[in-house]
Specification:
This protein has 356 residues and is of the alpha/beta class. Helix content is 41%, strand content 19%. It folds into two domains: 234 residues, 3-Layer(aba) Sandwich (Rossmann fold), CATH 3.40.50; 115 residues, Rossmann fold. Strands 3-2-4-5-7-6-12 form a seven-stranded mixed sheet, with helices on both faces. β2, α2 and β3 form a beta-alpha-beta unit.
Length: 356
């Protein structure tokens, strides 16, 4: 199949089917509605299950149940809907149940608005549920990259027995771009799901039970430490990022998702003006790609963090930078999308400040 032009949400839905999704449970909310709309039409064609739940809370608990039975399961939502799912996501992480969650971010807080935003970075990377848990989280830049990550996500969820979240904003969900749905993603070597609760097995000889409740504090601590080993493996193996025009850069724009696309245009303009600028683009936002900052050349004196928020990824950049370079920030909030010229002006301010 050659590349086809598709809308972002619909392409993600089809990518999930291509990735082996067995069942989808969700509830409508803008700007991700085309995902369940597409799957409601096409899942049955592939012998898969689609259920529109009565609420986001119901949807995530259906995901819990289907995943516990061994199915590959997807849910999707936008910001307030993801907030409602957080308890269930914590339960799934605690029970070591795999699933894929697509979050199409919109402006907040609260109900906010339906325009694109990156204001859910903390929600996704810090976790809104209780306890010491993490979800493996990616924030792709293009629709082509998004489709690839969605297809990979089911293997990653099964491999780590953990929720995987794909974070995009409303721009990616609503835009149209060419995508290659037949491209084969890298595969993980997966073990049989012999942990699944699928009734009494003649081979197994006993019933599996799935719980996140451990009333003995020492047993719960032991469980948390075992989970931490898994998270440590993710930190070691799943940091993903792109370094763009960084070989001779003196200023690095740190941006992800749609803002990284905008930053690319800003870099072209700035390079034409003789200003040596590059981009550090995180693809994984948990684990945050600290390796990228280790690789950043000594020529870089300033990091400009650009986000569609008031500075959420900024905190992670400060941590990994550890005081080595000057950090500046430029953000827009509430669903306002920054223009390339705005980033150009911020970089020019940095240059003037160093010259004065």
């Amino acid at each position: 199949m050659a590349k086809v032009l598709m809308k972002g949400n619909e392409a993600m839905a089809l990518a999930a089917i291509k990735g082996g999704c067995d069942a989808f449970f969700g509830y409508p909310i803008t700007p991700q509605n085309e995902i369940p709309e597409y799957l409601s039409t096409h899942m049955a064609d592939h012998g898969r299950v689609f259920v529109q739940a009565e609420s986001e809370v119901a949807a995530i608990n259906m995901v819990y149940g289907a995943s516990g039975a061994g199915a590959r399961v997807l849910t999707s939502s936008s910001s307030p809907g993801i907030a409602l799912k957080q308890e269930g996501i914590s339960y799934m992480a605690g029970s070591e149940l795999p699933c894929v969650i697509i979050s199409v971010m919109r402006g907040g807080p609260g109900l906010g608005g339906i325009q694109p935003s990156q204001g859910d970075y903390n929600q996704i990377t810090r976790g809104g549920g209780n306890g010491d848990y993490h979800v493996l989280a990616f924030a792709p830049e293009t629709l082509l990259e998004t489709v690839d990550i969605v297809k990979q996500a089911f293997d990653l969820a099964d491999y780590y027995r953990n929720p995987v979240m794909i974070a995009v904003d409303g721009l990616i969900g609503q835009m149209m771009e060419p995508v290659d749905l037949d491209k084969k993603p890298p595969r993980k070597k997966l073990k049989p799901k012999d942990w699944a609760a699928e009734g009494l097995s003649g081979v197994r000889g006993h019933r599996n039970t799935i719980v996140s409740l451990h009333l003995d504090p020492y047993e719960l601590e032991k469980h948390n430490l075992r989970l931490k080993k898994k998270y440590d493996e993710m930190v070691k193996k799943e940091q993903r990022y792109e370094m763009i025009r960084m070989d001779d850069a003196e200023i690095a724009i740190v941006a992800y998702g749609s803002v990284a696309r905008i930053a690319r245009s800003a870099v072209l303009t700035l390079r034409e003006k003789g200003i040596k600028v590059g981009i550090i683009r995180p693809l994984s936002i948990w684990p945050f790609p600290e390796k990228a900052f280790v690789e950043t050349p000594d020529s870089v004196h300033t990091l400009l963090v650009a986000e569609m928020s008031l500075g959420q990824m900024l905190q992670d950049v400060k941590i990994v930078n550890n005081g080595q370079r000057t950090i500046k920030f430029y953000g827009r909030a509430g669903g306002v999308v920054p223009e390339a010229e705005e980033i150009v002006k911020e970089v020019q301010k940095i240059v003037r400040g160093r010259q004065s």
